[in-house]
Design brief:
Largest sheet: 12 strands, antiparallel, barrel
Strand content: over 45%
Helix content: under 10%
CATH class: Mainly Beta
CATH architecture: Beta Barrel
Oligomer: single chain
Shape: elongated
Order of helices and strands: EEEEEEEEEEEEEHEEHHEEEEEE
Number of domains: 1
Distance between the termini: 23 Å
Number of helices: 3
Length: 335
Amino acid sequence: MKHKRHSFFEIDSSYIEPQHYNLTFMMQNTNTYEVYRLSNSQQQSITFAPETAVKVGPYFGWRWAVLGYTLDIRHLSLKSDSRRRKEYNLSFYSSVMGLDIYFRKTGNDYKIRNIYLGEDVDTQPLRGADFSGLSSSIKGFNLYYIINHRKFSYPAAFSQSTVQRRSAGSMLLGVGYTRHKLSMNWVEMGRLIDRHLQLPQEVTRLDTTLRSTIVRYTDISLSAGYAYNWVLAHNWLLAGSLSLGLSYKETTGDIEHRRLSLREFTLSNLSLDGIGRFGIVWNNTRWYAGASTILHAYNYRRKQFSTNNFFGSINVYVGINFIRKGNQNKRKNDS
């Protein structure tokens, strides 16, 4: 039997069980992590990462729209708002398309995880050192289209608004827009190096192409990928998807104390970004619980300066659907 609305929105109910409720409430634990790797043309590089943020908060949804807020319980004692990481997400899901809108602002509580200044420089004393001179923000959206939406349900894996009853996969096509801002205090970094390594200045000095203070870039991407939902058992789902995006970056920055403005389209402005999503869900249409992880990778590269940014989250959640739709009959397996 098939649920017919319009041919474009048609689903095969032998593969996908639609939502029977109008509203949902969910409690979620989110553990976020991020890594920034900065490097220059002299092959010098520094990798930063803060402690993992542990967040807890409620989410509330109406059909395909879910909105939530999480509080970083590990950093509640921080007195300065500038050190607190902030993250807001708004998601809209349907059988055919999905939209993610997000805002992410890091604090200034990074630690040095790895640093390379040359083969003859022992940087071990710097590893794990606190560094407050790095901050970043990311805001944007991802819009994607599910080609095999009749049999494959992306929301079943990541918004719990449907249930996948038979295994299926689908190609994904998407577009994205992201605005990045990275601020780095290289004067503070130089002082930290001198204090921990205590080596001659000519050895420890960072190359001048690393003395970028602020870099802002706009990332516009077209992506393609594949997702698969594997039904392990009744009400159980294991899901995974991977998308690669060809992105164009328009950049303005302050590098070596001069203004850099790149306004013309060139091949050097193109790069590959990626998004991976993986999850496991138990869902009997009324109650649901599960875990998921979302991974993002962004790359920015110029002749003098480049960054690799990786961030993601691991979510553990439990929720309930309520206020049954008027045109749905109660299912026997709904308990």
